[in-house]
Amino acid sequence: MPAAPRLYYLDDIPTPYRLGVQKLVADRWPGEFRVGFCAQSEPGREWTLDFGDLKPEFLPGRQWRPAGQVNPFSVKWNPGVTRSLDAFRPDAVILSGYTHPTMWRAARWCIRNKVPYGISCETSARSSATSGWRWFVKRAVAGWMVRRMAFGLPVGREAGDYLASFGPSKAPMHYFPNTPDTSQIIAEADRLADSGGEGALRAQLGLPEKAPILLFVGRLIDAKRPMDALAAFRQTRSAHDGVFVIVGDGDQMAAMRETAAGDPRILFTGWLKDSATIAGLMSIASAMILPSSHEPWGAVVNEAMAAGTPVISSDYVGAATELIRDGENGYLVAVGDIVRYAEIIGRLLADPALAHRLGAAARETAIAQGEEFAAKNLIAGAEGAIRSYAAGNA
Question: Are strands 213-217 and 243-247 parallel, antiparallel or unpaired?
Answer without folding.
Answer: parallel
